Amino acid sequence: MGLAAGSLLGGTTMAQSSGSADATATPDRVITTLDELQSTFRPDGTLKPGDRVRITDENAPYRTTQWLDIDQSGVTVVCDGAFPLVKPAGGANVGGLRVGKHRRVEDVTIDGYSHHGNPSEQSMSEGGFGIGSFAVDSITIRNCDIRRTTPYHKHNARNSGVIIGRDTDAYDVLNNDFDHIGDRAINAWGEYGYVAHNFSENGFDRMISVEPGEDIAIVNNRCAGNGRGSVIGVGRKISAPKRILIAGNIATGTHRRFIYCNSTAEWTNTMVRGNIGDGSDSTHPGIEVRAPHSTVAGNHLAGYGGAGVLVNAPRTWVRGNRVWDCGGPGVQFDPIESPMRYKAAGLNGAFKSVAQNNHLWRNCRQRGAAELQTAAKRTRLLNNNVIGTRNGIAGIVAIGRGRFSTAAWNVTPHGADVFADGGPTRTQANL
Fold first, then answer.
1. pTM for this predicted structure
2. Whole domain around residue 96: which residue ranges?
3. What is the CATH number of the domain that holds 254?
């Protein structure tokens, strides 16, 4: 199996470095007509293993009446830059490219494909995605432009921009643009993934969704508006993603949460680091972590309607974040929300979690909260800087009996110091 995943923070991928996807390489065939396009990309079409195909924009947009299938290994598709290159014909009820739909393939590259789903002229109730990867070992999807997939603005209808199926191993989704997408921009279920430098605007549900997935890097993506979903979502109640890096992403405009990590696995090893989110139009937390053994570090979060960082998973480390102007606490540790939900995994809320070296100011637009708040057992609040609490009952609050939490060496120059309700909560040397 060829490995597609690139270096975690923007390095050259193996598919790029191999030279097989070099945009200047001579193609084996050049497509200039709709008939050539559809006869090449059929399950029984003329495509051969190792073919390099250039799709020109000479007669674009190509008004397709069938899916475009890649069922051969080693294929590279390079497209000219006009948008849209492909726009399904009225009533065709098809989407764009399908890779490995009818047989297992490997080492496929799609470069520069552009797609308009034409939802106003389609009657399909589901399934009109832009690019779909099925039984594939190693795929690279880059420099593509996908808009208005079908059906438009319907959730869970297999109508995302890019779909990475659960039978895909090793995928790179790089430098793609998504606008007015039908559901999610990128919906990934496979393993060994690298999702980087993508841009989405006017989105609907999540921009990037990984569920379940293992060994995934989601880095340096940008989102400018996501009507109803989180920008980045990892996992859900019944899945257990593991070893996830979420770093260097930027979110603005309307969205629900910025980053949502959710897993019932006992160990997830999730790192959320160096992300920047402006949640002025959000009513939810900026970063919400329900994945055990996670680290949330060095993020900048402003304006979210809920907490800046909300943790409801054990052994989570929240360090060095800058959070301001949020509706709830800057950092909040919760006890277990639903004991039955995590019973099988033996989880217990934010048990044994740490908040350290965070800079929190002018949060708590909602009355009765605190800049730094814990109601979970055995949490440690160390060396945090709490400034300018507006409506909070205190800068730091530890609530509940028998918690045995520690709040030490925190700085709260504007507002109350530490408030402990029901202890014993050990506090010391707060300045």
1. 0.89
2. 14-428
3. 2.160.20.10
